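Issue: copy button drops trailing tokens. Both records pasted manually instead:
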Amino acid sequence: MADFDTSGYVWQPPGAKSIYKVRWEDLSPFEQGYVQALLRGVDLVGQWLDTVDPYRAPGFSDLAPEALAMILRDCEARAPAYAASMRYPPSAGRSFWRVRQHGHVPTFPPLRVFLNDAGKVCLASSGDR
């Protein structure tokens, strides 16, 4: 697979953060690893290639603003020191995503990853439809 696309930005809903336009560089390495693992999921990439763009995998700017807000909240709640610190590598964020999706973190149940009508990557609790 090609390099992960970190270009562009995601607009945040008002009140979600002190800045409204979030760039890849605004995320900590922990948050970057979490996003990479989420967006490289086989089911999501297959759905993306079939319905949105057959020539590229989803990248950072393809996240829905609400999904990014949830990611930032969850990373902060899981490990406040990780989310704010530049000391923790992206592998820690990737690991958190994987163990969460396998149901190994009781306080963070697996999430359903899907595309909305605009082709943006969204997240919901597994029970939400």
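Record 2 (pasted manually too):
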Amino acid sequence: MKKFYLFCAAISFVATIAVAIISCKKEPNKDQEGTCVIGGIGVAGQFMFWVSKDYSGGPYTVKIYDEQGNDKSHSSLDNNQLTVFEATAPDACNKANANYSKHAVAQLLFGKKYSYTATSENRTFKGTIEVPCDDQYTCKAIQIDK
């Protein structure tokens, strides 16, 4: 009988710890517009657009749109021209990368969804980007031709 009580006590203890851990998991703070915030400031990540091969037709001009279709290119893009192709994803966080300035690079707010178009003389790529609050990356490469 004593073993039974010890077993029940152990189960109760484990259940209490599990509830405590689950209740400690905190949802990210968001402002009224759904943007993830830390200390009241919207948090942005860096996204580098890249293309895996040369389709010819010159550079790509990248445009970014929010969920309502508003053009956010002027406020989000550090560079809107994509002028180089690479066989593998570039390191989006490395500004020392020799080709860094040849990629379109955007600062996008966490907790938001965006769409983009990348247009050259003879080709257009379109896609969407969802940037969740819990995304562990502050920098990410987005392949436009997949």
